[in-house]
Write a structure and sequence with these properties.
Layout (H helix, E strand, L loop, with lengths): L22 E6 L2 H9 L8 E3 L10 E2 L1 H4 L9 H7 L4 E3 L3 H18 L3 E5 L2 E5 L4 H4 L2 H16 L3 E6 L2 H11 L4 E3 L5 H5 L12 H8 L6 H6 L2 H8 L1 H11 L15 E12 L2 H22 L1 E12 L4 E12 L2 H13 L7 E13 L12 H17 L29
Helix pairs in contact: 4-6, 11-12, 13-14
């Protein structure tokens, strides 16, 4: 979910010039909230917060009515309610969002086979090869918007451009329920006044580093000395930003995306100071991550943890493994070792374990013996039991009686494949 509330929206007029364009970025408008309204029309027009009702949970999404009060994703629900006391809290229904997402993606694929989903609610499309069938890129974008509205019942915004980067920026500016076309010839003029924070891939730290040197717009990036950019954000990112600022983006549509990571997080009902318990929680989450890796046929080369303290300060640590693995015990041990490196002893609100740098299982080198053979056999048996009897049938003895984890929230936030 973006933080935009729809103010400052810019859309193209009918007949806008789409010369030189081929890429569409289609983004559903406040998707989770829109699906809830679709299923319960009495919610239409209300400020909605999608999340758990307890104040310790975080906002998964919000309607535009709530966003105008400053509510945005990942904000604590308690803070969101202070900003918008009249907001209605709605529990998320993730299976329903996936169902609607499949409907939307099927519409995209009915226009072109070159569809790259980015998440449940957005995708890139390359329409260059289907122009004779459907018309110009702007015409195809309009047809998609009409069909999503008519067949699914929700709205979307579309950016039409020559590159992925510009198309994504354009769809954001057009939200909600709009379309913005940027012809190839107009690309540099379109980019110049946009803030550096609007660039795809520029996070808060990079933005602060650039702005601290007076580089506030994409036009400023084009004019800045390369040495200054290198000092601000490093040579690799500065080279990438220089290309994007010039409208250069050679990335093609990836119809088969390689998953980047898989992880699970747990937010506790009460802040936890028991480090023994927290180590056990990291192992439990590692088991869940490993099980999902095995189901998907992946191994991880890097283990990362996230620790959020009672003051909401969040720390992340990661470690590259000697050998890729999908063994929960090995991932858990790495997560626990990372946790021990964190000196802060304040109460903990959230813990998370993530597997990164994924690769197909079985691709590593084979040694004379397998140190994890016993654990592979045990965890394979667990996988078989879960497949036959369900997720709650078997677990480590140390987790018995904890449910989803002692002190854990009733609605833990679980991250899927990104």
């Amino acid at each position: 979910m973006g933080h935009g509330d729809g103010r400052g929206r810019i859309v193209s007029s009918d007949g806008a010039d789409d010369t030189g364009t081929r890429i569409l970025h289609v983004d559903m408008d406040a998707f989770y909230a829109a699906v809830e309204v679709l299923d319960d029309p009495s919610l239409r027009g209300l400020p909605l917060i999608i999340g758990a009702p307890d104040g310790r949970s975080v906002v998964s999404s919000a309607s535009y009515e709530a966003r105008r009060y400053g509510v945005h994703a990942a904000m604590p629900v308690s803070q969101a309610l202070r900003l918008c006391p009249s907001a209605r809290i709605v529990l998320p229904h993730f299976h329903r969002y996936q169902e609607v997402s499949r409907q939307v993606m099927a519409i995209f694929e009915s226009f072109t086979p070159l569809v790259e989903p980015l998440s449940v609610d957005e995708a890139f499309l390359d329409v260059q090869g289907v122009r004779r069938l459907w018309g110009s890129p702007a015409r195809i974008a309009q047809l998609i918007r009409e069909r999503v509205q008519a067949e699914v019942g929700i709205t979307c915004s579309v950016g039409v451009a020559a590159t992925k980067h510009v198309a994504k920026m354009a769809s954001t500016i057009a939200k909600p329920d709009g379309m913005l076309v940027v012809s190839a010839a107009d690309t540099l003029e379109f980019l110049a006044p946009r803030p550096v924070r609007a660039m795809w891939g520029v996070g808060p730290k990079a933005a602060e580093a650039l702005e601290g040197r007076g580089i506030r717009t994409i036009g400023d990036i084009r004019e800045a000395p390369q040495e200054m950019l290198d000092r601000a954000v490093g040579a690799a990112l500065s080279a990438r930003l220089t290309q994007l600022a010039r409208g250069e983006d050679a990335r093609l549509i990836e119809t088969e995306r390689v998953e980047k990571s898989v992880g699970h997080e747990e937010t506790f009902d009460q802040d936890i100071i028991d480090r023994v318990f927290l180590r056990a929680e990291l192992l439990r989450l590692a088991d869940r991550v490993a099980a999902r890796l095995r189901r998907a046929g992946w191994e991880t080369g890097t283990v990362a943890i996230k620790i959020r303290f009672d003051d909401f300060r969040t720390l992340s640590r990661s470690q590259t493994l000697p050998e890729p693995t999908a063994v929960g015990q090995r991932i858990g041990e790495a997560a626990q070792a990372l946790f021990e490196q964190i000196e802060r002893r304040d109460p903990v609100r959230l813990v998370g374990v993530r597997a990164e740098n994924l690769r197909p299982a079985g691709g590593g080198r084979l040694g004379l013996w397998d140190d994890d053979e016993d654990w592979r056999r045990v965890e394979g048996a667990v996988d078989d039991a879960v497949a036959r009897f369900g997720n709650s049938t078997i677990t480590r003895a140390r987790h018995v009686g904890r449910g989803e984890g002692r002190g854990a929230a009733r609605h833990p936030k679980a991250h899927g494949l990104d």
